[in-house]
Amino acid sequence: MKKTIRAGIIATACFLIHTAHAQKQFIVKANEVKATIQPTMWGIFFEDINFGADGGLYAELVKNRSFEFNMPMMGWKLVNDKEADASTLIINRQQANTVNPRFIRVSRNNTAGTVQLINEGFKGMGIKQNEQYNFSGNTLAEGTIHPTGNNWQLYKTNCIAAATEAKAVLSVAIEGKGSIDMDMISLFPEHTWKNRPGGLRADLVQLLADLHPGFLRFPGGCIVEGRDLATRYQWKKTIGDVNKRKLIINRWNTEFAHRPAPDYYQSFGLGFYEYFQLAEDLGASPLPILNCGMACQFNTAEVADMEQIDPYVQDALDLVEFANGDLTTKWGALRASLGHPAPFNLKMMGIGNEQWGPQFIERYRLFAKAIKSKYPTIQLINSVGPDPDGDKFTYLNDTLRKLQADVLDEHYYRSPSWFFSNAKRYDQYPRNGSKIFAGEYAAQSVVAVSPLNRNNWLCALSEAAFMTGLERNADVVSMASYAPLLAHTEGWQWTPDLIWFDNLHAYPTPNYYVQKLYGNNKGTQTVPITLNNEAVAGQDSLYASAAIDQTSHELIIKIVNAAGKAQQGNILLEGINKLDTKAQLTLLQNNNTEAVNSFDGIVNIAPQQQEMAIKDKTASLLLAPYSFAVIRIKIL
Ligand SMILES: *[C@@H]1O[C@H](CO)[C@@H](O)[C@H](O)[C@H]1NC(C)=O
Ligand SMILES: *[C@@H]1O[C@H](CO)[C@@H](O)[C@H](O)[C@H]1NC(C)=O
Ligand SMILES: *[C@@H]1O[C@H](CO)[C@@H](O)[C@H](O)[C@H]1NC(C)=O
Ligand SMILES: *[C@@H]1O[C@H](CO)[C@@H](O)[C@H](O)[C@H]1NC(C)=O
Ligand SMILES: *[C@@H]1O[C@H](CO)[C@@H](O)[C@H](O)[C@H]1NC(C)=O
Ligand SMILES: CC(=O)N[C@H]1CO[C@H](CO)[C@@H](O)[C@@H]1O
């Protein structure tokens, strides 16, 4: 696969030798509005894969805090010396607490010696110097906590870290004689996103905010489906008191034999309320995806009996009420009681994740009927399967269009050459009927599922080229999101990913910067940009789109030069009376298509800003080899 891709680039470069000196004459017709760009156009897709939630976005540092993993002591160990004579016992109080049945009892028969219950965190705990850490546990804490009485009680204490450490552990030292019961042993940094107690990792959310995403799709992804129906995502079990959110296994725990993750679970500390809140913080439209009565078809392919599907449909109806209902409704009142009386403004939801086949259509019809009759304005998003072509795709593409589905969710995990050659994919799509959500895409440098895939510049550049085609067809494509979003450098199952992080840091990939340039230079309407009277979609390895921003009164032009040679471009700006004489140019460029970003301050690909002159309504620029340029010009 890799060889083929390389060959493709060489061919392109050879071809360009003949044309390198020619001036490319682009024409923009700024008064010919072609399509309205939806505010949702460029968004993000969060899935709890690669330790994206627990161990990632969710700032909890303690792994298996409630002893509910299949192996209840996973992540924990008791360290004691002989003198202390201590022991642990995992006790199950299923009758009294069905969602969080287990707790730990530590007994010591001697006041001498030391006893420590140690938690290893998620690949260690990232602790930052001078940051305050808030520790809490049901009964007991370190040093300053003196538990009393026989009832469950929440105790808290804080400490300030004296040093920065990526691989810290938490040690709960127990003194005295007797036994102590503990559960929900938790450690958070004080500075979470917006300093919310029990909140999200601020550095990661900031990277998401910087993308200015138009929507937030959550919580997946295949975890919506589960390996089987028992482990599907059920939003009602993820809201309210974190002590009462029942932990389940994460399907990525066992999915890939080459990347096993035996300690991957879902605590749901990041649950549906937090997702809605995050969407609101980001100014993004929430897009929850719900299980449609089908487990992952790559795994068990288990389906809910059509006779017993009502609870699934009810979950969808109740979610609309939870997000939008007023305080007189059951679920609206619950939202208010959790701290958000104002509605979350839910406008769309996904029915099923990446489903296919007639069993999906059967279930989709039922959901669509129930949801549309109660909430006619809610837009429904439907998958057209895991691939952008083939039998599964064609069946769903035809059938869902006949059923007048609102939005079709197309997924493409394909080679960079696929992305380059599909820049015209939507040029011939029907302009009426179902809209397109490019719901999961990422160029794969080797091949999908390969652990050797890298977030290299060629992949990012091919996505930038493809996205000019999405923008040009904004009347057909209403939303798009790269996938997956986050990956822990030690805990990942899937690569490539938009943002890589470890316990202390995160770094944006070249692909991230492509998304960022689109998200920050969206525009409100598309206008044509042509080369030799045609859309710029691969001629001489050039790709382009243009938009106007009616709010800021600017013309925005995006150009990809995927050739290994610089090309001279003159962009004639027609249909505008008066333009500023200077423009802002933002550039992503690297001569090495295999270049990547990484930790240790290595940023090979990052936006560079410069000013450029506009003369006689013409923007002239030398398009650097392997570059993506965004130009913003004020309309006066
Ligand atoms: C501690 O003492 C109790 C009661 O005397 C006994 O049942 C238990 O086995 C002892 N624990 C250990 C770790 O020796
Ligand atoms: C941490 O504790 C401090 C002091 O008790 C408190 O003000 C703050 O809200 C807590 N932060 C979190 C994230 O729990
Ligand atoms: C999906 O269906 C539309 C309408 O029939 C068609 O124009 C389009 O080419 C189809 N997509 C693919 C990739 O076949
Ligand atoms: C789209 O428009 C064409 C031509 O007017 C028409 O034949 C077709 O039925 C329309 N499709 C939908 C889904 O409205
Ligand atoms: C990239 O290649 C071009 C010629 O193709 C050359 O002019 C330029 O200096 C190179 N840039 C870097 C940073 O190597
Ligand atoms: C007793 C037990 O289950 N210990 C486990 C603690 O967690 C680590 C990894 O998280 C496992 O390797 C141990 O087996």
Short structural summary:
This protein has ten helices and 35 strands. With 636 residues, the chain is an alpha+beta fold.
What order do the helices and strands come in, and which of them pair?
Elements lengths: L1 H16 L5 E7 L5 E2 L7 E2 L30 E5 L5 E7 L9 E7 L6 E5 L5 E3 L4 E7 L15 E7 L4 E4 L1 E4 L4 E12 L12 H8 L5 E4 L29 E2 L15 E2 L5 H11 L2 E6 L19 H15 L5 H8 L10 E4 L6 H17 L4 E5 L7 H12 L4 E8 L1 H6 L13 E9 L13 H16 L4 E6 L3 E3 L10 E3 L4 E3 L1 H11 L4 E3 L1 E3 L2 E2 L6 E8 L4 E8 L5 E8 L4 E11 L18 E8 L2 E6 L3 E9 L1
Helix pairs in contact: 4-5, 9-10
Protein name: Alpha-L-arabinofuranosidase domain protein
Please give the order of strands in the largest beta sheet.
2-26-29-30-35-32-33-34-31-1-27-28
Terminal Cα span: 49 Å
Largest sheet: 12 strands, mixed
Q: What is the gyration radius calculated from CA atoms?
A: 27 Å
Q: What small molecules does the structure contain? A: 2-acetamido-2-deoxy-beta-D-glucopyranose
Overall outline? globular
Estimated helix fraction: 10-25%
Strand residues, percent: 25-35%
Low-confidence stretches: 1-20, 138-143
Observed structural traits:
about 625 residues; twelve-stranded mixed beta sheet; 35 strands; about 20% helix; disordered N terminus; binds 2-acetamido-2-deoxy-beta-D-glucopyranose
Could you walk me through the main structural features you see in this protein, from its secondary elements to its overall organization?
It comes from Russula earlei. This is Alpha-L-arabinofuranosidase domain protein. The protein is of the alpha+beta class and 636 residues long. The strands form 7 sheets. Strands 2-26-29-30-35-32-33-34-31-1-27-28 form a 12-stranded mixed beta sheet. Helix 4 packs across helix 5 (330-337). The longest helix is centred in the middle third of the chain and has 17 residues, at 358-374. The chain is globular. The two termini are 49 Å apart. Bound molecules: 2-acetamido-2-deoxy-beta-D-glucopyranose (6 copies). The site of one 2-acetamido-2-deoxy-beta-D-glucopyranose (NAG) has 4 residues, from loops. One 2-acetamido-2-deoxy-beta-D-glucopyranose is lined by residues 134, 158, 188, 190, 192, 197.
